[in-house]
Amino acid sequence: MNALDHVRDFLEESPKDNRLANDRLLARLRIMTATQDQSPAERTASSDSRGDHSGETGCDRVWTIHFSPGPQLMRGGSDPLLLIRELGGLGELTATASLASLPPLAELDPERCYVAWDFILRTSASLDAIRDVFIFVEDCCELSIEPQEKPAEVETDRTALGLKEKREAQGGRRHYDSSDNSSTIRVAVTKLDQFVNLVGELVTVQARLSELSSRRDDPDITAVAEEVDRLASALRETSMNVRMMPIRATFERFRRLVHDLARDLGKEVELTIEGADTELDKTVIDQLGDPLMHLIRNSMDHGIGIPEDRRSHGKPARATIQLSARYCGASVLISVSDDGRGIDVEAVRSRAIERGLINPEAQLSDSELHSLLFQPGFSTAREVTDISGRGVGMDVVRRNIDKLRGIIDVASRPGQGTTVTLRLPLTLAIIDGLLVMVGDAYFVLPLADTLECTELSRAEIDSANGRHLINVRGKVVPYIRLREHFGITTAPPSFEQVMLVDTEDGCYGLVFDRVLGNCQTMIKSLGRVYRHMQTVSGATILGNGTVALILDPHRLVQECIRAVGPRVRGHPTLVDRVSATLSGPGKFD
Asked: Is the model's pTM score more than 0.70?
């Protein structure tokens, strides 16, 4: 990146003596290439010996190559045309360009390459030599290199002709690989979304068929319903896997951001990446750019100090920001960590009191103070800069993650650093759920969050003296009655069901009337009218035509924690607060 900046200086700035910078860059290049101690003759001999690195076989082979630059390729300083010229230097090259991804002029991004290429290359070079042409851009492009098995002189003409005929037949609207032997095909995202929506509709129809078969004592209908259920489930899994993409390209794009911010702020920062091959729904990945950018900028400006400050605290001058991703059940955890100074909770508290967000006498836990950082317009910075101080960055993070039905968790230790973790669903379209009822209302619980189900008798409710607690194998677990939460006034059954769910705040119970069974659910948005209902992530249409609300257990628990009332000193979770109530009066501030 330093070399790229140096070249940009040549192009943008007035002529000046850059010999010192040149010498520094050349010295670093010699160290990286380990050629600084070689004589010219030795370097020539070495170059000659490496001339055979391609592993030439002595006979020509024909390769079909698909190359589609990603959105970040040109922003990283790479030029696709230079890569094509280098590829042409390996042998006889035939290129066909595709403009299928070219958007309308109003949506055109001048820093992005929308052209994709299909090449037919006849060369004696090996696969490794061909792949070396794209070695520095392979992570930010679509690339496939396949050998052609048929004779070169016949295959080249036949494949080129076949590719042309296919394009003419489709009017240039579709993109095909340049070989019939290729195992991949590129499909527009809009068509893929339409496919997933149709699969979701099929899931709904399948639920109606299952409902119909359960009401009729007909073995034939039951057999057909079970077979359709199996096929719909397999099709749903396949459609979801098609939308999954590795998060690597999203992570890699922030190397330039960290480099430029470190230079502007006078800091030394290294970006490390872990779990880049973790896959997420493309819809989720596309909306992660802004939240991650704001989190990194916040770490660079607020969390990481200048080298002198870090040395004075016994830390290395070069700081580290780590982007990581890993699976956790049906979710993906994406973390942004730094080894900076951590969050000054007292500064956050003072700023919140100053803005009237909290009462000066309120006793808040660190996690509750951390949550104030995501309030609109909240910032601990006293001066507004180009990087921070306006209080909009973390608010953007919260709003975007809310749209993805995600959860934000902040962990910080003074003097050691901060980690912000985003818990995101693998997909936004279809989920496995547990269908339950309260009165005449239907609800769906995401199956990935459920642990086990137990009964709650009327005697247990009465013996708790109004406290929402249940004893599960010797462990006291607080519960939330959906009947009370949603204001359902019908009479409860003598035995209610408690589903234990795993949330960010621990294990809690959700109480409802009865369990109807598992279901595959297509999530439908409730629309802007209900955008403030945080405990409900969407709705779905059941087989009998009724609407069921899809609950978000994490936010449901968090909302109940906030509604408990005055804070309990030193007890941030609902379990601790309820336990404090059991131990006697006088525990509330």
From this structure: no
